[in-house]
Each structure stands twice: as structure tokens, then as C-alpha cells.
Design goal:
- The structure holds 3 protein chains of 3 kinds.
- Chain A is 74% helix and 1% strand.
- By secondary structure, chain A is mainly α.
- By secondary structure, chain B is α/β, with parallel strands linked by helices.
- Chain C is mainly alpha-helical.
- Classes of the chains: A mainly alpha, B alpha/beta, C mainly alpha.
- Chains A and B meet through helix 1, helix 8 and helix 10 of A and helix 2, strand 8, helix 7 and helix 8 of B.
Chain lengths: 287, 393, 332
């Protein structure tokens, strides 16, 4: 009984880690600049396709494609930021929503055109396949890997935010943008770099997701809703909040399907609404 | 106000005259138009593409002229499950483009919405994929060339019961075809002495199966029957099963062929080896026609394999061509339906016939096992049941 | 939407001016009848545009006039649509006009209840809460297969012929006049609402919600009222869709539909009542034409259109019209 529960918690945590890596970038950038970037999940999708192209066309081993996906999408997003996003920093949310939805649509159609509409796959190294069962709890290797990656990224981000000067600037700008500018912090530069890192993480998340939930041109629209859920529950601008929300939502989803299969996918949304009603600004949000 | 009213009346009068006239005026004498209504964008884009590939391949192989008339395909995109859009597109194809046939439909709600357009306009409508039983009962102008879930599920249940499987846990996706499959399996299985020890319905939306796989492992039934639709779910489900050692355990996994859809079989990898499924088409079907079909498909579309959806498009065109030939190019709704009834076609899947009573397809259902042949994963047929009708009716 | 710069206007003129029906508006509405004569094979599309226009209008009431951004407005559209289906098919009430009203009321009731949550959050959090509630409703509908027909939906939904005589025909003539008529009537109602003192107070709330109570305006109650009204409008639009297409399925509640109506409204221009109608026309006609030309990849061009509008015509089409009129010297 306990072994089952722990197994389910572990699976949920792993799914949650995937959601975390996919969403944390959006949480920080929305908290930092208030910019509604609905194209975030499209960056994740492109990261996935980049990983697929590298493994299938160039024979790059899967694990190596992960940092490459990060860097590649970070660079791509900087390009978009420079050309398009920058113009709308001071526009209203609606214009930002419209622009980024436009980008999502173009991304979906482009991926369908360039890579086709079928499912894509990657080949993780054989040692990530299968599972082992300490104390009767089934722990899949790929899921362990995901939990590991998620934890490392979370710790890295927290360290970066708490212990570095750049992190201090980010926190200052999230707390009070005007004051931060007044203190001479180059908020636009901070945002540009944060945006690049956040989008790069989305790209990394997209690559990690392939082996767990698959990849096709509809990835962007399918996961946009989940990413927004995680971000809204966690609270904008908070790494810890996103981590907690992602873990919570991932576990609710898996536990719900295991213990209450009639409720199905309902659980993740019900938990989200309940949390938002309790704390409308998110678990760790401030607005 | 008076001016407004008279303008309105004038407009109405004009339309009353202009309306019906446009219907007869534009009938081009030398083309037969087929309105292809499918979900070219959105979550079912891949299936629509396979269907379209099948259609284009047939037309390439057999030319685009039948009985002296040119066959023209007009493609319209529904964008996903959206009955209001499907109905509007069907209406427009009928009144604006004057199509002679309607065709397509990957998913059930879109097909159902078009029923009364087909009936009102008396347009023969060829269902090339949508697999819920009730569809063909909704309009006397519907004919189906693909399959229904009960049709391919029942033989599997019978085979399982006769081959030592006594207890089964069923896992299906929670929507029309899935529920059809679950009910059909249960009915046939219990009628042959088996017991369904439990069942679960999984949501269509998220392809995250760890909870369901874990449940199977914990319950440890003798066998599991699975149905999931063939876009992103089969690969993820099988991989999750394999990750937990379910595919190499003593639990026997049986499924409908959607789970080992030829288009996604390679992605499932070794996780799918040994899986026993039942379906109406396998890429590895051993017939001259199929080999030619597969080779021609590979030549046109490269690495992609044709799957049962492609065959649905291919045979749909074959049916249309046969009817056009029979009617010598003069298409009348009722005559066309009479021609469809009892129509026999030699398909890459094997022989098929349109049931004259239900206008649904009667075909051979094969039992297959996933094997590796020449380095590729295929569904190798090892048994068959001939002339299977849709038990759902 | 950035706050507009304050302009010097004579208050009395500004209040009295819009109430009068302008000649341009008469031309506009009469022109909407043209498809009946000029494009009789496009009437099915025209009906769906009218329905979308009504839906966009309902969103404008809360977004353009009260500043409530919602990514879950399709919830009310869907409630109206399913309620109309159940009325006609399950509960035997097949009179169409009253069916519309009852479905609108059903949606309004849910809207009223939801409005208590809506007023507690603002801006980005509001976006998320509305999104979440909308998705939750969609999942619930997916689950309650016995009521909603699940993924397959409900079909063969018949209502009595309109006014005892007009049935929904293959050309969509009846549907077109029906939807256009309902749109026009509800538009008149909306016009009345936004130009009343109530409507003005909403605009005040949009500009600066914190200050309004100091003017004696019960801000939360106002927002709840307009939210309920907007839910009614959206519910009627959904019911129209069910009645004219005789079908309903889960896509009426989807996030996609919420996103689309938001796009249509922003394309047309918020806060100008006609924005929703114009935006719906532009978006749906563009989509139809693009999808006909390129059934597989038309999303690309729609995306490009959206980006182009955001970058070059801020304020949407109506914003562009206003700028043009200012250029030419007409009154805004």
C-alpha cells in the first residue's frame, strides 16, 4: 500500500519536474516584466524539434542535445525579443497576447511544414530505460533523470537568484521595476538575459518531454494550458512557487488517475481552481 | 422605416429568384467533384494527411478520368473536432461548388454533423475513417469504407477466450470509439466464457500514462485489453508499459490495431514486440495488391508508411470510381447509393464489401502479432476472420 | 491596451453625441444584408460570423468597457449552447426564441456566480483564473457524457420553425436572417447599456478602478452586473449556434474558442462596440479564405496577420478607423 503511494508520488513528481522546467522561464519573465508571452510553449516545442533534428540527422547523442537545445532556443528567443517583443514592452496585455498567439500559430504551422505532422522520437541512452525497485517502489530511470534535472535546475536558479549580483538585480526588478531603474539597474538588459535563459529552459523542457509525452506540431497549444496553470498557481516571478505548483499539479494528476480514475484529468484542474480561489495571486505570488 | 422595409423586401425578392438559379447554372458537365472534408490542421492533422495521401495515390495510379469525366477533389479543412464547421463546409461544398460526392471525416462528431446536409441534398457521402457504429445510421446517404471499433474488437475477444485467456482488465480512451471498443470486447468476451475483472477509461487529453500502467502492475491481471486512438498515445502508452516491465511480464497485452498503427509502430520500438492485435489492415499484409500499394506509397511519400487511415482514403476513392463507372458518369444521389450497396472492392487490406442493408463495410479482420521482419517492426498476420459485419448494428 | 491620453472635450457634447444614431451606422447595418443578395452561397459562413460577432460583442462588454480580461469566456458560450441543446432535445422545449432567452439566462446565472470570484483578482491573475475556470468547465463537460454526449457531442437537435414557417434550409437563408436579427437587437441593447450612466461608470472602472468608489460607485457590484450581462449575451450566441447547426460538441467550451474570440475582439478594436463585429468579420473571412487556399498550413498566415495588426494597426481596425477619421478631420 505504502509502496504504491510512494510510487505514485514519485511518478507525479517526475511529471511535475517536466512541467517545472517547461514553466519556470515563463513565471520569471512574467513576474519580471509583466510580459504575457504565450509563445513560451512554442519555444519548448522548437527545442524538442531541435533535439530531434540533432539526433536523427546529425547522430548527436540525446544527452548532448539537451544543452544544445537550451543554447539554441535561448539564442532564437533573443532574436525574437530583439525584433518583435521589445516593441511591445509598454503595450497592454492584449497586444502582447495577440502578438504571441500569432507567433504560436506560425510556429505550429512551420513545424508541421518542416517536420511533418507525425510523432517524433528520440533515443535516450539504454541506461535510462527501465526501472529498479528499491523497497518495492518502482522507480523508472528516465523519471529519476527528470527529477534530477529538475532539482539541479531549481537549485541552480535559486542559487543564481539569491547569491549572485545578477540575481539580486532580477529580484529587485521583479519587486519594484521603477525603483530598480531608479537605482541604475539596466532593467531592459536584465530582462533580455532572463528571457533568454527562461526560453532556453523551455527548449530544454521540450527536448526532455519527447520521451515522456511525445512531440508533434500540436505540442505548443496542448502544453500552453498546462504551463499557464503552473505559472498561475505558483505565482509570477517565483522559482520556488513554480516548483511547488508543478510538483503539486503533477502529483495531483498522477494520483488522481491512479486513485480516482473516474475523475480522470479533472483532478489537475480542480486542484488548480481550488488553489487559485484560496490564493488568487498564486502560492508564492505577490500581486 | 418604410424605406428600410422596402429595401429588405427587395433584397428578399432578388434572393428568392437568384438563389435556386445559381444551383443549376453552374453545373459543369465534364467534371465530377468530390468534396473532401477533413481535419487537415489541428490534433488529427496526421490522420487527415494519411487519408489524403491514400486518395492522391489512388488517383495517380488510376488516372483522374472515369467514364469520360474528370474527377476533381476539393479539400476543405475542419481544423479538429468542430461539428459546426464541418456542417458549414459540407453546406458550402453542396451549394457553392456543386459537388457530386462528399467524403473524408477522421473523427465521429464531424461526420455526425454532416448527416442532415447529406440527406437534404441527397449527396452520397463516403466516410473514410470515423469509426463509431452509429454513424451510418444517421443518413441514408452515408456509406463507410473504413471500419468500426466493434467490428475489429469482437474477433479479438473471441480469439482471446478460445486461447486460454480467462480474465481481462480493459483500458480504453474515454470517447465514442473507446467506449464502443470496451462494450464490444466485454460482450464478445463474456459470451465466450471470459470475465472482465476491471475496466478504466483514460482521458483523451493528456498522454501521461504512469498511473494507469502502475495500476495494471499492481492488479496483475492475466491479460489487459487496450484501445487508444492512433496519434500520440500508442507510443507513450507502450513505452510506459515497457518501462515498468509490463511488456516482458506474464501479463498478456492484447489491443486493437490502433495501438500498433503502422504509422507509429516504429516509434514504439521494442516495447511493442509480441503485442497481439486485431485490425483490418497491416502494412505487412501478404498480397500482390498490398505490396504494389506499399511500394507506390513509399515512392511518393518517402519514409512514411501507409496505415489503415491511408487505406481508408485509397479504398474510398476506389469505391467512388467504381460507382462513377457504373453510373457512366451521371451522378444521381439515389442511384449512387444503390450502386454503393453490395459493392465489392479488392483492397490492399484484402477483399471488402459494402453491406447493402447498413451501407457499412464488411471485411476480413486479421489477428496479428508484432514482429521484426527485415529489421522493421510489422504487424504479422497469423489468423483471420472473414466477412465480419459491424456487430454494433 | 494603454490608457488613452486625456483630451480636452466638452463634457456635455461628449455625453450627448454618441446617443444619436449616426448615418454611417445605418449604412453599416443595411450593408450587412448584402450577402443575402450578392453572395447567396456564403450565407452559412455569414451566420457563423454573426454568431461570432455577438460573442465578441459580449466579450467587449467586460473587456472593452470594464477592463476585465477573460481567457475563459467560451464557458458562457458553451453553457448557452449545451442548454439550448438540452432544452430542445431532452426537455422538449423547442420554441426557438424563448430557447435563446432561457439559454442566455442559464449562462447568466453561472456568470453571476462566477463574478464573485472574478472581482477578487485583477490583470494577470484574472487572466489565469478565467483560463482555469474555463478549462475546468471543459473537462467537466468532457466527463459528463450522459448530459453532453462527451466527445461525440449532441446531434439532430431540432427546434420548431421560426415564426411557425421558416425552417433551417441548406442555403442557410433562414439561419442568416435569424442570427443577423438577433445580433442587431442585442447590439441595440448593448448600445443602450454602454451609453447609460452605468456604462460610463464602467469606463471609469476600466481606467482607474481604485478611484471610482470615491465617486460613490460600488465598483464590485458594477463589475458583477456587467459580467452577468456579458454572460447572457455569450449564452445567447452559443444557443444560436446550436439551433442553426443542430449540433453541439465540446469545442464550444474550448480554450481555443476563448482565445479566438479574444483575437477577434482585439483585431477589431476594444471598447467601441462595433469592434467585435468588425473583428469577427475580418478574422473569419480571412480564415475561411486562407483555409480554402491552403488547408494544411493556413495557421501560418493567420498568425502573420495577427502580428501585422498588432504592430501596424494598434487599437485594432476601429482604432485605425478612428485615426483615419482624425486625419481626415471628421469627429472621432
Amino acid at each position: 500500500m505504502l509502496a504504491h503511494l510512494l510510487g505514485v508520488l514519485f511518478d507525479g513528481l517526475a511529471y511535475g519536474m517536466l512541467l517545472f522546467v517547461l514553466s519556470v522561464g515563463l513565471s520569471v519573465t512574467m513576474g519580471l516584466m509583466g510580459f504575457v508571452n504565450l509563445a513560451h510553449s512554442a519555444f519548448a516545442m522548437l527545442g524538442g524539434y531541435l533535439s530531434v533534428t540533432l539526433t536523427q540527422r546529425l547522430g548527436v547523442p540525446f544527452l548532448a542535445t539537451l544543452p544544445l537545445a537550451f543554447v539554441g532556443i535561448a539564442a532564437l528567443s533573443t532574436l525574437f525579443e530583439r525584433l518583435l517583443y521589445r516593441r511591445l514592452y509598454h503595450a497592454g496585455e492584449l497586444d502582447q497576447v495577440l502578438l504571441t498567439i500569432g507567433l504560436v500559430l506560425m510556429a505550429v504551422a512551420s513545424c508541421a511544414f518542416l517536420w511533418g505532422t507525425q510523432q517524433q522520437q528520440v533515443d535516450p541512452p539504454p541506461y535510462l530505460f527501465g526501472y529498479f525497485s528499491p523497497f518495492g517502489i518502482d522507480l523508472g530511470f528516465y523519471r529519476l533523470f527528470l527529477v534530477g534535472v529538475g532539482a539541479v535546475i531549481a537549485l541552480g536558479l535559486v542559487f543564481g537568484l539569491e547569491r549572485t549580483r545578477f540575481g539580486a538585480k532580477v529580484r529587485a526588478a521583479v519587486d519594484n521595476q521603477r525603483m530598480a531603474r531608479g537605482l541604475g539597474i539596466d532593467v531592459n538588459g536584465v530582462f533580455a538575459l532572463t528571457f533568454a535563459v527562461g526560453s532556453g529552459l523551455a527548449g530544454l523542457g521540450g527536448a526532455l518531454a519527447i520521451n515522456m509525452v511525445g512531440l508533434d506540431p500540436n505540442f505548443a497549444t496542448k502544453y500552453l494550458v498546462f504551463v499557464l496553470l503552473v505559472v498561475s498557481v505558483g505565482g509570477l516571478g517565483s522559482v520556488g512557487g513554480t516548483f511547488a505548483a508543478a510538483a503539486l499539479l503533477g502529483i495531483s494528476d498522477v494520483a488522481g488517475k491512479y486513485y480516482l480514475p473516474e475523475a480522470g484529468a479533472f483532478m489537475i484542474y480542480a486542484v488548480m481552481v481550488a488553489l487559485l480561489l484560496w490564493r488568487p495571486a498564486g502560492l508564492f505570488g505577490r500581486r | 422605416m418604410r424605406i428600410w422595409a422596402s429595401r429588405l423586401l427587395g433584397g428578399l425578392a432578388l434572393a428568392a429568384i437568384a438563389g435556386p438559379a445559381s444551383l443549376t447554372a453552374a453545373r459543369a458537365a465534364d467534371t465530377i467533384k468530390v468534396g473532401l472534408v477533413a481535419e487537415f490542421s489541428g490534433p488529427f492533422a496526421n490522420a487527415a494527411r494519411e487519408m489524403d495521401n491514400g486518395i492522391k495515390l489512388y488517383m495517380k495510379q488510376h488516372g483522374d478520368t472515369v467514364a469520360g469525366k474528370k474527377i476533381e477533389i476539393i479539400r476543405r479543412d475542419i481544423g479538429g473536432p468542430a461539428p459546426d464547421v464541418a456542417k458549414r463546409l459540407a453546406q458550402e461544398l453542396v451549394v457553392r461548388d456543386n459537388v457530386d460526392f462528399l467524403a473524408g471525416f477522421v473523427v465521429t462528431p464531424n461526420a455526425l454533423a454532416v448527416a442532415d446536409v447529406a440527406t437534404q441534398a441527397k449527396k452520397p457521402t463516403v466516410i473514410m475513417n470515423a469509426a463509431t457504429s452509429i454513424i451510418t445510421t444517421k443518413s441514408p446517404y452515408f456509406v463507410r469504407v473504413s471500419f468500426t471499433l466493434p467490428q475489429v474488437t469482437a474477433p479479438l475477444a473471441v480469439w482471446a477466450a478460445k486461447n486460454g485467456v480467462k480474465q481481462v482488465y480493459t483500458m480504453v480512451t474515454d470517447y465514442g470509439p473507446g467506449i464502443d471498443a470496451e462494450n464490444a470486447f466485454k460482450k464478445a468476451f463474456e459470451a465466450n466464457g471470459g470475465t472482465v475483472v476491471g475496466s478504466v477509461r483514460m482521458p483523451l487529453s493528456s498522454p501521461e500514462f504512469s498511473a494507469y500502467a502502475q495500476k495494471v502492475k499492481d492488479l496483475n491481471p492475466q491479460a489487459v485489453f487496450v484501445f487508444v486512438p492512433s496519434n500520440d498515445q500508442p507510443a507513450q502508452l507502450m513505452k510506459t508499459f515497457a518501462e515498468r516491465g509490463l511488456t516482458t511480464s506474464t501479463i498478456k497485452i492484447i489491443a486493437t490495431g490502433d495501438v500498433t498503427d503502422d504509422a507509429v509502430l516504429e516509434q514504439e520500438g521494442d516495447a511493442a514486440l509480441g503485442l497481439i492485435t486485431s485490425h483490418h489492415y497491416s502494412y505487412a499484409h501478404d498480397s500482390a495488391l498490398n505490396k504494389a500499394f506499399v511500394a507506390a506509397y513509399a515512392k511518393e511519400y518517402g519514409d512514411f508508411r501507409p496505415d489503415f487511415v491511408a487505406v481508408g482514403g485509397y479504398d474510398g476513392m476506389a469505391a467512388i470510381y467504381a460507382v462513377v463507372k457504373k453510373l457512366k458518369g451521371k451522378i444521381d444521389g439515389d442511384k449512387a447509393m444503390a450502386a454503393f450497396k453490395g459493392l465489392k472492392i479488392e483492397s490492399p487490406r484484402g477483399p471488402i464489401m459494402i453491406d447493402p442493408e447498413t451501407r457499412d463495410v464488411i471485411q476480413t479482420v486479421y489477428l496479428r502479432k508484432v514482429e521484426r521482419q527485415n529489421g522493421k517492426l510489422v504487424n504479422a498476420e497469423f489468423d483471420k476472420v472473414e466477412n465480419v459485419k459491424d456487430p454494433g448494428k | 491596451m494603454a490608457a488613452p491620453a486625456p483630451t480636452a472635450i466638452d463634457p456635455r457634447r461628449a455625453l450627448a453625441e454618441p446617443l444619436r444614431w449616426q448615418w454611417g451606422e445605418t449604412v453599416f447595418w443595411l450593408a450587412l444584408l448584402l450577402p443575402f443578395v450578392l453572395a447567396p452561397t456564403y450565407l452559412a459562413l455569414a451566420s457563423q460570423i454573426a454568431i461570432a460577432a455577438l460573442f465578441a460583442l459580449s466579450l467587449d462588454l467586460i473587456l472593452g468597457y470594464a477592463g476585465v480580461i477573460s481567457l475563459g469566456h467560451a464557458a458562457f458560450f458553451g453553457i448557452g449552447a449545451y442548454f439550448a441543446a438540452l432544452l430542445a432535445q431532452r426537455w422538449g422545449w423547442q420554441e426557438p426564441f424563448s430557447g435563446l432567452v432561457l439559454s442566455g439566462v442559464a449562462a447568466a446565472v453561472v456568470g453571476y456566480l462566477a463574478s464573485f470570484l472574478i472581482v477578487r483578482v485583477s490583470r494577470l491573475a484574472l487572466l489565469m483564473v478565467t483560463l482555469g475556470l474555463g478549462v475546468l468547465l471543459g473537462e467537466a463537460a468532457n466527463h459528463l457524457t450522459s448530459i453532453t454526449g462527451g466527445n461525440d457531442g449532441l446531434h439532430e437537435i431540432d427546434v420548431w420553425p421560426l415564426l411557425g414557417r421558416f425552417t433551417f434550409d441548406l442555403y442557410g437563408r433562414t439561419a442568416f436572417l435569424y442570427t443577423l436579427g438577433v445580433l442587431f437587437l442585442m447590439f441595440l441593447g448593448a448600445r443602450r447599456i454602454v451609453q447609460s450612466p452605468f456604462g460610463l461608470s464602467l469606463r471609469g472602472l476600466r481606467e482607474n478602478a481604485e478611484r471610482m468608489p470615491s465617486l460613490g460607485v460600488p465598483s464590485r457590484r458594477r463589475i458583477r452586473t456587467i459580467y452577468t450581462i456579458a454572460a447572457f449575451y455569450a449564452g445567447v450566441a452559443g444557443a444560436l449556434l446550436t439551433q442553426t447547426t443542430q449540433s453541439v460538441a465540446l469545442d464550444v467550451l474550448s480554450f481555443q474558442r476563448s482565445a479566438e474570440v479574444l483575437i477577434m475582439l482585439v483585431l477589431g478594436g476594444t471598447g467601441r462596440l462595433y469592434g467585435g463585429i468588425v473583428g469577427a468579420m475580418l478574422f473569419l473571412v480571412a480564415r475561411d479564405q486562407l483555409a480554402t487556399m491552403n488547408p494544411q498550413y493556413w495557421l501560418f498566415w493567420i498568425g502573420a496577420l495577427l502580428i501585422a495588426v498588432v504592430l501596424f494597426v494598434p487599437g485594432g481596425i476601429m482604432g485605425g478607423v478612428k485615426a483615419l477619421r482624425a486625419r481626415v478631420g471628421l469627429r472621432p
